[in-house]
Amino acid sequence: MNSRTDLAPAVESILAAARERADETSDRSPLSVDARPLSGAIRRAEADGRVPVIAEVKPTSPTAEGSREDDPVELAEAMVDGGATAISVLTEPTHFGGSPEALTRIRNAVDVPVLRKDFVLDESGLDVVEADLVLVIVRFVDDLEGLIEAAKRRGFQPLVEVHDPEELEVALDAGAEIIGVNNRDLARLEVDLETFELVAPEAPDDVTLIAESGVSTPADVRRMREAGADALLVGSAIMDHGEGETDVGENTRRLTRAGTQLDERENDDRSTEI
């Protein structure tokens, strides 16, 4: 496994819980998944004039100020109605309030690709629940190439997460085709959108690049798209874990229209009204 020095205590706790859950899945039979392609979903979004956004069903997190108890299927359906290109579902139960069962229910209810967001450490961790994509974090995996190949054998599309140019090189050498750049520093849990701007220029053109974490406003969306993001993974800004919980569908719509003709048309209409 790659170096985990200086990880935030919350991340160490998440990894410890992931290792415990891995012991429970070691004897499961390999899954076989008929995945919905993310690439096609991204093309459809752009053809519709939408920014490709992977909206995340995340009941809570170590960095959230609260939690949401809404039915996860209703949240996912509202996100899709708001223009989400795909749905990310937390299946980590201890720190994020997620579950494999919620992912299955959501995948049965929506017609867009669904990402399983969890801390998969080895091949046995893949065989928990069917999804279209599965998250693989470079920093936490010993045999990255083997895990990517194992995911592909099952039909998953691996979304390989990196945080710096060195991890990007490791991911590319291991055969990653969909790469997420996490703007959150796992040592301090701080977010810096410059992380994506630093890593993106090093990626080849044939890789699908996803900006993860820290996207909160339409301006952030435009910034990440201008830096080369093919899609954006957005959780907290859509879920709104604070006391003033908002409509996740409207939150999604606000971001999927950022900088598009739909967004510009709405701004023009508001200017006319004024």
TrEMBL record:
A GO molecular-function annotation: indole-3-glycerol-phosphate synthase activity
InterPro entries in the record: Aldolase_TIM, Indglycph_syn_Halo_TrpC, Indole-3-glycerol_P_synth, Indole-3-glycerol_P_synth_dom, Indole-3-GlycerolPSynthase_CS, RibuloseP-bd_barrel
Keywords attached to this entry: Amino-acid biosynthesis, Aromatic amino acid biosynthesis, Decarboxylase, Lyase, Tryptophan biosynthesis
GO BP term, example: L-tryptophan biosynthetic process
Pathway given in the UniProt record: Amino-acid biosynthesis; L-tryptophan biosynthesis; L-tryptophan from chorismate: step 4/5
Catalyses which reaction(s): 1-(2-carboxyphenylamino)-1-deoxy-D-ribulose 5-phosphate + H(+) = (1S,2R)-1-C-(indol-3-yl)glycerol 3-phosphate + CO2 + H2O
UniProt KW Lyase keyword: yes
Identification of the protein by name: Indole-3-glycerol phosphate synthase
